Amino acid sequence: MNLTTALARLLIFPGLLFAVPFAWFFLWVERKSVALMQGRIGPPFMQPFFDFIKLLGKTTPPRRGVSGLLMKTWPLLAVSTAGGAVGLLPVLPSSGGFEGDLILLLALLEVPSMCIIAAGFSSRSIFGEIGSAREAVLSVSYNVVFLLAIVSIAASQHTFRLEALAHLPASPMLILAVVAILVCLPAKLHINPFSLPNAEQEIYSGPITEYAGPELAMWELSHGLEWVAATGLVATLIAPHFTAVWLAVLAFVVLSFGVVLLLSVTAAATARLQIDTTVRFYWQCTLIFAVLAISSALFMRFRS
Amino acid sequence: MNLWNRLMCFSRRRSPWLFHMNSGSCNGCDIELIASLTPRYDAEQLGVRLEGSPRHADILCITGPVTRNSVQAIKTVYGQVCGPKAVVAIGSCPATTNVFIDSRTLDGPLNRHLPVDVFVPGCPPRPDAIIQGIAAAAGILAERAAKRWPAESVMVPMADPESACDCTKCDCTKEDKSSADTPAREVQP
Lengths: 304, 189
Ligand code: SF4
Prior knowledge:
The complex is a heterodimer. In chain A, α4 (65-88) runs antiparallel to α5 and α4 packs parallel to α10 (213-238). By secondary structure, chain A is mainly α. Chain A has one domain (3-303). The longest helix of chain A has 32 residues, at 126-157. Chain A contains 12 helices and no strands. Chain B is an alpha/beta fold. Chain B has a single domain (3-186), classed as Rossmann fold (3-Layer(aba) Sandwich). Chain B has helices at 3-14, 28-35, 68-80, 92-96, 127-146, 172-181; strands at 17-22, 49-50, 59-63, 86-90, 118-120, 154-155. Residues 160-189 of chain B have low confidence and may be disordered. At the A-B interface, α3 of A face α1 of B. Bound molecules: iron/sulfur cluster (SF4). Iron/sulfur cluster binds next to α2 and α4 of chain B.
């Protein structure tokens, strides 16, 4: 991958120029589907965009010293890493890529949640600290099964290239891994039933309680970009291989939209679980997934 | 006005985020405020969102006659809302201290302590009146984006209980029209 294609992927497709409008669109789908499930009409189509512009025009409280600087840095870091993660997704049929880009993608997907943890602690708000502690506990528990799922498909293909993973033939291993990833996504995106870090009835807005104005706009945007990156990852794993560019793009968009719809309907239909129930759930998932993955690997070996 | 300012005005009108604060209300107005966000009234169509943190909010909705204990809290929370901001006084209590007038536990009405932008009278006001008040406050916010001076206080006309009923016996539509035509006036507590 040379510099021009890398820049084009990062800035145009599937990077920022594509991902930012889609981030707003997915945020709208999330709110609209909750509204429809509750028998309401819900927010207008451009609502997340209006929210973003409005937040850009608000003032922020004056903050001095290192913690003030950090509070400005975390949301920017979260947006740039989430945008970078979207840019790495192998959407186009011959998108290049490099050896080990899967590891980079996983790292970039992880940075926004670390930023949120750090943001809560550097805001020095008690609600922020509780939210950050919850996010830390949550990310320790869901990440085991999330990483296990991705590493097991990568290991079955003997590669850490994203492009090779995007063109996988359907196998029991792949289905198992996609289901495991789908189970982890609500926790990764902080939506019900695992919306513990930003449980608004308990701890206000969790880690972002103290953030205002443009910083909050950046958090909203990074949340949207995380939606695009996480659902896009699932979409690239399950999309069939197309050689035509427009077909590949269309499949990516449609599949991502389907995953967003699935997740937001689940979120609307469920209530928040307690933290210990959540942690137990994810460790049980890890155990089940590990047993199934090992038995399917043994099964495949004996069959071949 | 350039394009960015116009976009900003429009966005402020379309995205009012609320922070709700109780300054000793009897809970009647609070229930009505929550009712205006429920599926029946669905204020989210106007982009309204109830926020957990005053830092995220644009509009501070205050209910209750302002007890002595709550004065400092109200001022703190008002300071925590980032500008541009507006204050909506929900119910007759924050406007006039209502039935609690002359109580020695009170330090109201609200505009002794904060600049109130919109009064929504009623004991409690109907959810549609509250939504109308929030929309008026969002309009004031948009005006503030255009010119830097605070706009004048607005009074939402009191909803006529007759005009809003669903029955077929009374002449609802006529009543409705007359109450909507009532010019807004300032409240003088
Ligand atoms: S206006 Fe009426 S309903 Fe509202 S807080 Fe006062 S007494 Fe209660």
